[in-house]
Automatic annotation (TrEMBL):
One Gene Ontology molecular-function label: DNA binding
Residues in Myb-like domain copies: 9-61, 62-112
Domain of life, per lineage: Eukaryota
UniProt feature, compositional bias: Polar residues: 196-205
Protein name: Uncharacterized protein
Subcellular location: Nucleus
Extent of Low complexity compositional bias: 125-137, 164-183
GO cellular component, one term: nucleus
Lineage: Eukaryota, Viridiplantae, Streptophyta, Embryophyta, Tracheophyta
Gene3D superfamilies per the UniProt record, alphabetical: Homeodomain-like
Amino acid sequence: MVRPPSGDKNGLKRGTWTPEEDGKLIAYVTRYGCWNWRQLPKFAGLSRCGKSCRLRWMNYLRPNIKRGNYSREEEETIIKLHESLGNRWSAIAAQLPGRTDNEIKNHWHTNLKKGLKKSSDVPRQENNSSNNLSQLEKIQKRTDPNNPLLYPTDTSTEIIGRLPSSDPQPSSSRSSSITTNTSVEPTISMVEDDNPTSTEASAETSGNFWTQPFLTDNSYIACDFLAPFMGTEDLSPVVDEFSCPYGLFELEKHGANDLSVPLEKARKGEKEPNDPLLICTAQIMDSSPSSPQPSSSELSSMTKDSAVASSTNMVADDIVTSLEASAETTGDFWTEPFFDGNSYITSDFLAPFTDSEYLSPAFDEYLSGYGLYGEYEGVNMIN
DNA sequence: AATTCTATCAACCGCCAAGTC
DNA sequence: CGACTTGGCGGTTGATAGAAT
């Protein structure tokens, strides 16, 4: 089912992604964003081509991806859209939040197409809803989310790689107490979609990695998830920013601060060896070329304009206001110092960047031009 | 128990469009 | 305007788990 690592091509690794590689990619993209897929593997410390990184992120690692367990509504939508759109999988995927074109394509070829073919092969057979329903039920039975073989309950293992889990599951008592106490409330109320679908709701209760609230005793998930922010940044606005897309807010209130302890233990080798992902993550963070920055020569070749230009390429046009354009023309935008009391400068200073891009190398370079390094917290506060 | 067949899906490949130089 | 780069898309492959023989 999974391709093993195959031969190198031009010195680039191919085949199945390892947990270490996933960790590096997650750590880098969540911190710096995907500012250039081709360059990204170099800075992320990956021996992969940019295309492979992009694919891995888009189809597997990025937040809010639903896996398996297609609802009846989703399958009906796919069938309906395929009738009108044909094999335009990305267009179909656009109508199904959380589903990737690749996964929909696979699901179509492996499940839905056969079902449709069968029903068209037997035209006399009543093509009514109950018939379709049984087909769908058959499919859903095959993709039973409770089937541990198909969908391990520890979905973090799947997201991060496919390490044989040593069972660092959240205890059921803990889970139930968490899900029934108030700590869940802000998470649910603050996620982008205020009306999560039944599938999402079920994913939450079934322990979906991306929607599950932090559990203090779930060091396996949490430490890895927080790996890019270990240390003092745990409680910074950056972590909030990082956690927002995952539906996770106000981490400090849910014990996120406790998480540095087990990771620190793993770093020191104090953690039991039966927690492979935790140790692996510690290694990734320690060996930290996982997030290397451009070299000084590379930085010097990257002018402020080009850095910002590359960033603005990623920004929606409507964000660039006439005010900014005017500021750019006059030059004030680039030369004014960056200080707390100057709200015009601060908002416009930050305007070329979206929230996620505050963590990009381009933004680091942008700040460094003003002698500002690692001022994310300050930037966020001022902004 | 061993072998063969089938289903699954992550990953790769080649092509294309848009943007940049 | 053409060459080049980059991101995105759809078709296809191939290893493996599980089912069937």
